[in-house]
Amino acid sequence: MHRLSCEEAFRRLDDYLDRELNEEEMGLVRLHLEECVGCSSEFRFEAAVIESVRRKLGRIAAPPDLIQRISEGLQHAADQGPGPGSR
C-alpha cells in the first residue's frame, strides 16, 4: 500500500475533513494521521477551527426579511413548475 508523505497528507486535509476523498484516499490519510504526530496535530487544529465556526454559524439568526425573500422565491419557483428539459 502506498504511504502518503506529510506534504501529500497535508494537501488532502481539507478534503479529508469534508469527507470528499474516495475510500482509498480517506484510508491513506487516516493511516498517515495515526502514524504522524505533526500532521495529526495539524488535523486536530483544523478540525477544531471548523467545529468552532460551525457552532458560531448555528447561533446566527437570519434576518426575517431574508427568510421572507427566500420563501417567496421558493414559492415562485414552485408555481412556475419544472423548467425546460426537466423530466
Summarize the structure in short.
This protein is mainly α.
Describe the structure.
By secondary structure, this protein is mostly helical. The protein has one domain. It is 74% helix and 0% strand. α1 packs across α2, α1 runs parallel beside α3 and α2 crosses α3. The longest helix is centred in the middle third of the chain and has 22 residues.
Number of strands: 0
Number of helix segments?
Answer: 4
Q: Rg from C-alpha positions?
A: 21 Å
Shape: elongated
- Give average pLDDT, whole number: 88
Structurally, the number of domains stands at 1
Content of β-strand: under 5%
Largest sheet, in brief, is: none
What structural category do the secondary elements indicate? mainly alpha
The helix/strand order is: HHHH
Considering DSSP H and I runs of 4 or more, what fraction of the residues is helical? Answer: over 70%
**Cα end-to-end separation:** 44 Å
Low-confidence stretches: none
